[in-house]
UniProtKB/TrEMBL annotation:
Family: Belongs to the glycosyl hydrolase 76 family.
Taxonomy, superkingdom: Eukaryota
Catalytic activity: Random hydrolysis of (1->6)-alpha-D-mannosidic linkages in unbranched (1->6)-mannans
PANTHER family registered for this protein in UniProt: MANNAN ENDO-1,6-ALPHA-MANNOSIDASE DCW1 (PTHR12145)
UniProt protein name: Mannan endo-1,6-alpha-mannosidase
Signal sequence residues: 1-21
Amino acid sequence: MVRPSNSLLGRVLLSAPAVWAALDLDINNDDSIKKAAALVAEDLMGYYNGEKPGEIPGLLPGPPPNSGDYYWWTGGLLWNTLIDYRNVTGDAKYTDSIVKGMAWQTGQKQDFMPANYSLDMTNSDQAVWANAALAAAMSGLPKPSSPDAADWLQLARNVVTEQSLRAVNSNGTCSGALRWAVLPMNAGYNYLDTNSNAGHFALAAALAHETKNDTLAKQAASGYELMTKIGLIDDKFNVFDGIRDDCKAVNQQQFSQNAGLLLTGSAYMLQQTNGDETWKKRVDGLVARTLEVFFPNGVAKEVACEGSTVDCVTDMKLFKGMLHRGLGVTMQLAPHAKDKILPVLKTSAAAAARTCANGKDQRLCSVYWASNSNQKDGATLGAAAQLDVLNALNSVLMASVQSGGSSSGAAGGSGGNGDAGAAGAKKDGPGSMGTATSVSTAAVFGGLFLGVMALF
Ligand SMILES: *[C@@H]1O[C@H](CO)[C@@H](O)[C@H](O)[C@H]1NC(C)=O
Ligand SMILES: *[C@@H]1O[C@H](CO)[C@@H](O)[C@H](O)[C@H]1NC(C)=O
Ligand SMILES: *[C@@H]1O[C@H](CO)[C@@H](O)[C@H](O)[C@H]1NC(C)=O
Ligand SMILES: *[C@@H]1O[C@H](CO)[C@@H](O)[C@H](O)[C@H]1NC(C)=O
């Protein structure tokens, strides 16, 4: 559970090559973006060993510090990124790997709590995988072949249900919020992190939309309101990291994946409610503030670590990709915001792709895109860099693709299609259940987390 900072890991300083940009990209041309994305994806999968003998399917090399840089949750991000890639490019090359890798990690109870990792599971970790499963359902990924395997939508449902119950078990002023850690003996059990709550929110909102389920829509709405009430989102739409369960002091650091998840969930709620004014304000507020905070000069930057004296640990290096995804999905679901979002996604993705000039083919990408990123950290190449850049390219392509906006009506709910339904969320729902929200991205702020906790 304690996730050590990268500085504990051996690192090699990689110097920037003199030769520029082997990765050819015209950011205004979809075919060019697709070609570049195919190369970035290929190099990403070059870091995936899950199909080699003796290796575990579904995961990138890890966990730190001894077995590799990547925690369990990163596998969920890997598959979600490739599901998006498949959806926006139509390239089905990785379909088998995605299905096999995700199916391997569903766990006995089909809730993404596999025994190997359940002891230090966080709600945010679990939500990353569940959100990937939901993306799989929405984009029509084939079901796992094993006859007793749950389908993707059911996996997402199982997690949302489980997490809603956990959220209700919290108590006090912050009652209804999800804790970071699932188990009481773990560090992080006394921390109510935005990552878990926003991950759950995004999951509940998207699932509500996909299955036309008013109960879930209501849960998602109360989850957002709770995050506002306890100060995780302020009235300027800053999104803070979390709060201790004594509910007294908010940790005001801002990490970009949290904003990405809140945007995703809010955009689904805007659709779900057929354009409700409250959700439109939230979407617009989050878009404006997110672009302001995380895209100085139009290029995504993890401002809490890049350009500061703190090294970005591996998890932090992955957030920019999730940020890009959140904005891309928002632009699909809330087309009125496209004029604000798309130009920034383009400048950022173009800057990201310009870093893809390393390695023997001079096309491996780097994590830091902003010219003033100022990081001493030499470990800039690797799966994290490929994931971020691929997400950035995917996000631009989302502008041209019919999205999750139109529900497939897959399974579930009233099977309605189109945007028919479910305005406000009413009916059943144990009204009190507050909602939980959890979101993707496992939090894991490594050494920083401990440092942060020490401040309280
Ligand atoms: C759990 O660990 C065992 C032993 O390393 C491995 O064979 C198995 O694939 C792992 N399962 C998952 C879901 O990672
Ligand atoms: C809140 O939960 C904690 C542990 O989860 C417990 O120790 C405490 O007694 C609870 N407080 C109330 C008011 O229920
Ligand atoms: C992409 O996802 C949408 C739904 O979000 C789906 O309708 C479409 O068929 C998918 N396209 C591909 C190529 O997977
Ligand atoms: C809607 O979601 C709620 C909460 O997850 C669930 O209990 C209920 O069965 C769902 N309703 C339908 C019709 O699927």
